[in-house]
Amino acid sequence: MKKIFVAILCLLAVNPMLAGAQAEQAIDPALDISTLPLWPSGAPQVAGTDTADLPTLTLFLPQKGKSTGSAVIVAPGGSYLGLASNLEGRQVADWFTARGVIAFVLKYRLGAKYLYPIPLEDAQRAVRLVRSLASAYGFAPERIGFVGFSAGGHLAAATGTLFDAGKPDSADPVERLSSRPDFLVLGYPWLNAMQPSGHYITYCSRIKTIPAETCKLDEQKYTPSLHVTPQTPTTFIYSTTDDQTVPISASVNFYNALIAAGVPAELHIFRHGAHGSGMGEGNAALDLWPVLVEQWLRDQGLLTPVPKS
After folding, report:
1. pLDDT in tens, 227-242
2. With contact defined as beta carbons under 8 Å apart, do 22 and 36 qualify?
3. Residues 74 and 106: beta-carbon distance below 8 Å
């Protein structure tokens, strides 16, 4: 790992695409884990100097020589108030790296301090930044997935429907790259977060530290099912029928929109299962969803190494 880390630092010194933005902080080099800031000189709109406010990506690498050439960004859930970074972050990253996929766990900004669309801007930047790192870490820039759970699932779907091709005139090379993920994996996603829906929670109902009239967002703009096009990435969704936190109808609506637009999609609805189950948590039924998503990834060649040119 020491040689790899030194090599990366040398690469940063000569490649302006990576320099600054990729000033890695080694968490544990022996475990191939490090963290990177999304912006080299601090994120825009950061309130104050608290480093906890800075959005980051934590990198998890597969065993040496086992990379498939694919990468994922993982967005944990937490109602846009916190991050379930173990259950829906590290454990998910470990599952992907065991299958040869490089994983980046996203820490995005949250709460009343960072209202929408700031979390979305962090996610879009994360896709651009990961794409800029493709050659450095040996994955294909067109094989970047976005995986999200609950609120992170909403964030993933919003990123997959509200993207752009990059800003060619930007002074920042990372900003010139596309923010479109190449595939989405959504676990019990909170896809109606911005829309009132009976007894279910909403984004503004969860942000209780500010007056309700202040938390006013464009519900239409940030509802992913309303922005699906043929360019939306291929998507895998799993939810449970008796989820008491987010309605299954939101996942069905998104799936229907994908099919109507001609986007390849797969939806699995389990009869029972609590919200926030991560990779299954030992539930006899839900433990099957990682098996299903692995089959889905294999079917698309995303777990097959990229042929060497």
Report:
1. 999 999 999 999 999 9
2. yes
3. yes
